[in-house]
Amino acid sequence: MCGIVGYIGARQAQDVLVSGLGKLEYRGYDSAGVAIQQGGSGGGSIEVRKKAGKLANLAGELAAHPLSGTLGIGHTRWATHGLPNDTNAHPHATEDGKIVIIHNGIIENYLTLKAGLQSRGHVFRSETDSEVLAHLIEEKYNQTGSNLYEAVRLALGEVRGAYGIVVTHADHREIVAARTVSPLVLGVGEGELFLASDVPALLAYTRQVVFLHDGDMVVLGDDGFRVTDLAGNSLQRHIEQIDWDAEAAEKGGYDTYMLKEIYEQPVALTNTLIGRLHDDSGEVNLDINLDPGSFKRISIIACGTAYYAGLVGEYLIEQLARIPVEVDVASEYRYREPLVSEATLAIVISQSGETIDTLEALREAKKFGAKTLGVINAKGSSMTRELDDTLYIHAGPEIGVASTKAYTSMVSAMLMLALWLARARGTLDETRARELLHAARELPRLVEEALAPERVEHIKKVAEKYAHSRDYLFLGRGVNAPTALEGALKLKEISYIHAEGYAAGEMKHGPIALIDADLPVVVIATESRLLEKTISNVQEVRARAGKVIAVLSDGDTENAQHADDVIYVPRAHEMVSPVVNAVAMQLLAYFTAAALGKDVDKPRNLAKSVTVE
Q: Which residues pair with 302 in a beta bridge?
């Protein structure tokens, strides 16, 4: 989860580290710290500063008492082992302060390693698993005749778990880093080098990057960098050009990243769909080399918001391509011994491409012979290097922890995938394919309409009206049943209001007991073949005095009479409506959280990229 930044060059490292950590605070904000080399190589020292809480706490201290130096490493933490406090914050140093490390991930065998180190006289100051690495590297450093690279390499040979680790030593002007599971990206500038957990931390300085692979080590020095494997063998890793600019990762005048990313959805959807839809011929070009006729069943595997995108995908693929689809939460899939064969297509969905449960589920599917396809946003991520093929969503960097534009782009990608499978398998004729492709092509315009100022202002008023409710219920049917789940998740994530999402027909099988005059019930009742049944569910809510917030298609005045409040959205084809309806869910959650004074970009206990179990 945690954010990592490293720098060596001619700039003041403090400036680079604080700037980079600011771009990575979405990865964790329990504490932050930096370590900056003083006096360069040959007997210098390393000054460590770290503070519990958000980065602003550390930044304020550094502004008052700055550190000078042109080599440094920095970290923003999402706590796994040990409470979020100054002591457990990274970086961690050896007792003499010479070796300093930062670490993202979990060392599974840290207790065994720690016991051995303590028996040999090492004294630990924190409760973290990460500090074990500093002491283990110190032992190897002394054994190898002061070779930092070899010390790190040998130490990692004894480690079991996930890590993105960055190490420096007071007596060496170099940084040594390695990764397994946890991501690391190398930035290459003019006479300077950078490290980060994610690309946005680098964009202010360079767009030339090297994505490090699982098992890679890298040494950064004033003379350049070299990459090896954990056995010490040299590797060639290509420098890639990133087409995001620094401004794309900034707020762009919006109050929050989340609001900015909500408004970026028309552009993100255009980027997802562009060049892939040919409604003149009814064909979809996804540049996927897998044989769609070879699959007898499909498994969709994901976590959180991506899981709900997968549920929409299940509906679309079964309806259009007529293939049995099963959707699994990745953390369950990997342990339930799934029935997988060579005739199975396993589709993993992940914004970051680093979600550990999804990555391990992917590996589980591959182990049993499944072909694998990823619906991924982040290029160069761990999943993309292990998949048979990848459908990139091209949503651009998403900083807000609660996913918005990545979700709607994922759903759009699942629609395109369903259409591609259906056309290839002959289950969708050209006329209907053209109709659906045209509907998909309309999505950027429809979402732009959904973000019209008068619509947004109205949703804000509805949100403020119910902001102090203790509970919420979200209902939807058919392809929009997952939209209800996603709406509830968004509200929970950023407002901390308890919310449940249900298929509307399930309400009378239990949730109806919750309904009273204090319960707002959001019902997604846009134009669909199940609209009449959905309105029947609305009547069941009203009969028990529940407050109905109906999400209706433009012009539906007949069903508006059944609601206490109405949110109108642009009229859309049923198959693409989950994308349009999701925007209303996002805005409702956003303005509810804002009315309650919550930090929507950094909701408590959450992090953007979940790279630990």
A: 329
